[in-house]
Write the structure tokens for this entry.
Amino acid sequence: MKKSRLWTLLLLILAILAWGTLGMGNNDDSADADVAVEDDADADVAVDADADVAVEDDADADVAVEDDADSDVAVEDDADGLVAINTTASKLEWEGRSAGKSHNGDVAIQSGSVKLEWGNIVAGEFVVDMESINALDIDSDSLDNHLKADDFFDVEAYPTARLAIKSVEWSTATAELTIKDVTDTITFDIQPVDGWATASFSIDSSNRNVWDGIKWALVADDIDFDIMIAY
């Protein structure tokens, strides 16, 4: 009887020990599973972080490419060197003479640009609005109307004139001047200073179909021009 109880007690103890061992194994497995889940979470975080960094790197690369493109455009602009003039501040003044007297006035510059190298003008082109020709020394439209008529500048048929600077050497500009249907080459000194350029030149109107023979025999052939360009 005592042996039977001892065997029963022994079996009970063995069963308890066995159950404890199985329980610890399951706990270890759960812990391992938890660790694995945490490792997976860390891996996801690492992947996400790397992906975000990669996306940011791609964005930075795109920005860098765009910046390079902008830089290329800037270099091309600088290489071209063309600068639009300020037509409001720029002006062209003229003076003509006849029978012992003279008249002076101005005419608007419609558009234009200059090409710069090291701050100096090396080329340029200007369009002059001949319809804006205006006498400043007399308060009357009569002279303006005469100058705009077909026996002078004929602004209805030729509303613009052009001055194209082809080259500049040691401040001497070589340019083509077109008035009405006549284009020829002129030279003049040009002085650029702090965003301004000034020049003076004269033209012989007798070979430009500007006025009609004997009718204007007392009108001097030369017309003087002063041009001031702001850029």
